[in-house]
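BUG: 3D viewer hangs when loading the predicted structure for this chain

Environment: internal workstation, default settings.
Expected: structure renders.
Actual: progress bar stalls at 90%.

Input used:
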Amino acid sequence: MTEALLPLPDRCAQALSALQADPIDPGAEAERHLRTCRACAEARVAYLAQEEAPEALAPAGYHERLPDRILAKLPARAPLHRRLAPLTWAAAAALLMAVGAGAFWAGRANRAPLVEAALPRPAEPVEAATSVSDTPFHDREEDAAQVQSLSPDELKALLKQLDPPPPSAR
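C-alpha cells produced before the viewer hung:
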C-alpha cells in the first residue's frame, strides 16, 4: 500500500534495499547513489540511528568510585569557611565600631551640659543705649544714616556715652 502512494525510482529502491540489509556497508553502487540522492542519504542516517549498539561495560565499582577519583584530580584548597572567616570577623568588627562610635557621638550631642556659662548680674540695671524697636527685622542702615546726620558735638556726646566706664579698684 505504501508503494502505491510513493512510487520510487529504481536506483532509490535498490539503494534502500541495500541499506535495509546493511546500513553501515551497503555496497559501492549504493554508496555512489547516496552521494547524489539526499532522500536516500537521510534514510541511511535513520537506519543507522535505529541500530542497536552494544552498551559499553564499565568495570565493577566504576560508578561508586567516580566521585572520589574526580575529587582527587581537583587542586587542593582551603574550605570556604576558612577563607571567609577573617573577612567576616573584620567586617563584624568594623560594623561594631561604626555603631558604637555613632551611639557615642549621638549621646554626647544630646547630653545637657554640666555647667552653664552665665554673665554676672549687675547690681543696678543698665539702660540700653539704643531703644528696642517694635519691628524685629529693623533695617540698621537707617541707624547709620541718623548717626551721619549728627553734628560733631552730638557725635562726641554719643561716643562718650558708648565708651565703657574705667574699671574701679576695689
